[in-house]
Amino acid sequence: MALGHHNDEKIVYVGDSRVPKRNLENVPPDYSAFPGRSEAFIPNFLLKEWMVGCVALVGFLVLTIAHPAPLGYQADPTNAAFIPMPDWYFLFMYQLLKYPYVSGDYVVLGTLGIPGVAFTALLIAPFLDTGKERRFYRRPIASALMLLSIIACIYLTKISWDHYQHQLELTGTTPEHILREEKAREAAEKAAQAGQNGGSAPVDPADLPLVQADDPAMSLMEGAGCLQCHAADLKGQGSVPALRGTGDLHSKEELVDIITNGQNGMPAFEGNLSTEEIDQIATWLALQKAPTE
Amino acid sequence: MFKGIYNWIDERLDITPMWRDVADHEVPEHVNPAHHFSAFVYCFGGLTFFITVIQILSGMFLTMYYVPDIINAYASVDYLQHKVAFGAIVRGMHHWGASLVIVMMFLHTLRVFFTGSYKAPREMNWVVGMLIFFVMLGLGLTGYLLPWDNKAYFATKVTLSIAESVPYLGPYIKTLINGGDIVGAQTLTRFFAIHVFFLPGALLALLGAHFFMIRRQGISGPL
Question: Is residue B145 in some structural domain?
Fold first, then answer.
């Protein structure tokens, strides 16, 4: 291609580049495509949109500060008591899979069948609803199907959430992120109190020495399986608390009750241990206190 | 001076038509809440994009501390949440933003559906929008595992067993996203890669297509 331009050429380029040279006049386009009061996106409309955006951002930040993002305890694959729970926007599918005709032998209907049909229909909606009419009350089938689906999703989500709450209640479980926050707050309060009394900072119970470590209760606990969760050195692991220093937290009667009936995902040991054995273990655990100077 | 720089670039690249096309377009009365308050329903698309931008920015800052490996993942999130200055805010924005973006996208979808805006000639834009919806759900699913706490771990186990129950392809899908037989180190790095590279890449491409089409076609007319 020749580098020079002649005036009779139809497209004039900038230098020897492929950018066509145009002379665009600085006039806004004609805003007459729609009836009524149209306005320019920049700057007129965008300024107002920024304001909506700012309000949304402030609300968002308030939510973030009022409710810190939850964090439980580190993943522990051996934790059998944990109740699995997906994020809230997957609950409707999670709940769907709990019904008899879409689980077990028919699980394909629940994983692929119903969600597959629903999401495919949603994906190709414009090719299913091909009429010219746009108003929702003039296309009752499409609108009714959409409304029904929304109601079904809300219903399933609610049922699933209620079921989860019920399960928490039944097993006496506090969700881990709440448990963790409470513990952190208690520790902070204790530290503040210790600071006020001029005492030393609180000690992690796992660092406390065992009192009467050669007591026969220890072998009883080993036999009952206590050490599998509370660790062989009784220092606890993950969300399972240490048994060292238990005497500072619970009386002997409380310990008998916890061992007999279970608590926070810990199973009941009523059948495994006799009343005397439970009494013996609780007596020893109640002795596990921080040493007094 | 800025004008000088602009003119210098414009002379060479002719950039004026590009941004004029994006910026200088008409906002009709029926979508403008300043004229009709009920037109606020047209804001949800913009708010979805706004929160998506927040998600991308907060996510970029989170990766400055996050370590995708089973020993350090939880510890790094813990550190980020409780020790790093404003870490709780950045993580909180990413956590709550993930829910908000789903809410906004849901409302935007309903607006488009009930105003019949997905009808000819905008069918392709609806399909792309639905693909964005699925990518967002995928981002939520993969991001849920990353803090590596019990909630994340056991929810992912459930997800994988559901994926496994798909006939014929199920076991392959499970191996692909699980990276082995158990939910472990491989799963975490795979979910991290999908959450941080694959899906955001797809999301940006789809968003580009979504915005290109809305600019080409303009917003749907009044009912």
Answer: yes
